[in-house]
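Input sequence (132 aa), recorded before submission:
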Amino acid sequence: MRFPTSVRWHRDLAYNTTWSLLAAVERWNLRADADADADAGARTGTGMGTGAGERIETVAVTGLATGVGGVDKDVCARQMVLALAHFLDVRSADGRRRWAQDGFPRWDDVLPIARSVETRPEDGSPERGDGA
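Predicted structure, token format:
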């Protein structure tokens, strides 16, 4: 958090931040894989590589905005798990096919995801960042 302040008003902060983290790790790993392939080619005289980095295999993340940010720990945990599940789904073979329909997703693909982020599993009511 750049400046410690309450972010309870931001209903899907943990979800969005987790998704962004996963996308950044994926981009890093794609680059690391390409560099490793290029390095192997350089050793055999078939290409050039930078050796810029190794793959990221593990990421440890604390509860996003659960301290000064005021986001309830259960809300944060649920949103982080949903982001991971949705991220993996989109990258699966079925997910790639579903999300590539006519170059953009359909509302019936998007709305269930939005509702799952905004709804508490206990009672189906809208979720607020403070757990209330």
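Checked by second reader. DSSP finds four helices and no strands in the chain.
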